[in-house]
Write a sequence for this structure.
């Protein structure tokens, strides 16, 4: 297979450029053009970001509760590769290196194992089976309970089943109802 030089050139042109004034070693994870926080929900976006920079990246899998699940990304090859776990920030440096550091602004996304450790089956929740609106004016919201343990769908998306809905719902679309004491 031959690579079209025009397409290669366009791919390089559309890759995020390094802009030194937008990145420092103590940058803000959420606004820096050179950093990405890795979560289960943005795994493919981050992988594409790395691909556009001609950086090899591969899903990193581990055994969690007897199940092989994706827990991060392996970035680079050979002795220079780094592993970014969900919740880490990937930093692209001027010289092309990548480093990983703890996220300064956690997203709050839980893995299935973390969910199961905190919440038993039957936990009261608000579930958003469709789109989740920022202004909480969602008529699609269900007031329900979980009917299963959380599991990892497709090896990367943590989901749970709830009463009153026929399919699984991503944990990013489920809020625990805090009961008044």
């Amino acid at each position: 297979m031959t690579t079209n030089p025009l397409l290669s050139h366009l791919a390089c042109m559309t890759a995020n450029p390094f802009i030194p004034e937008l990145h420092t070693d103590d940058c803000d994870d959420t606004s820096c053009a050179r950093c990405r926080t890795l979560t289960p929900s943005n795994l493919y976006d981050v992988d594409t970001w790395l691909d556009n920079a001609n950086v090899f990246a591969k899903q990193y899998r581990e055994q969690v509760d007897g199940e092989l699940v994706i827990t991060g990304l392996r970035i680079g090859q050979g002795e220079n590769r780094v592993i970014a776990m969900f919740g880490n920030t990937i930093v692209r440096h001027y010289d092309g290196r990548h480093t990983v550091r703890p996220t300064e602004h956690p997203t709050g996304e839980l893995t299935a194992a973390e969910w199961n450790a905190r919440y038993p089956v039957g936990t009261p929740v608000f579930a958003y089976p469709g789109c989740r609106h920022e202004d909480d004016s969602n008529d699609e919201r269900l007031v329900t309970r979980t009917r299963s343990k959380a599991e990892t769908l497709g090896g990367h998306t943590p989901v749970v089943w709830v009463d009153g809905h026929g399919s699984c719902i991503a944990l990013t679309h489920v809020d625990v109802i805090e009961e008044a004491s």
Notes: Confidence is low (pLDDT under 50) at residues 17-22.
